[in-house]
Amino acid sequence: MKLYTKPGACSTACHISLHWSGAPFSVQVLTADEMKSPAYLAINPVGAVPALEDGDFVLTQNAAIVGYIADLYPASGLGGDGSPRERAEANRWLAYCNADLHPAFHPLFGPGRFIADESQFDAVKAIARKRLRDMYARANAQLDGREWIAGFRSYADPYLYITLRWAAKTGVDLSGYDNLAAFVRRMDADPGVQAALVAEGLA
Question: pTM of the entire structure?
Answer without folding.
Answer: 0.96
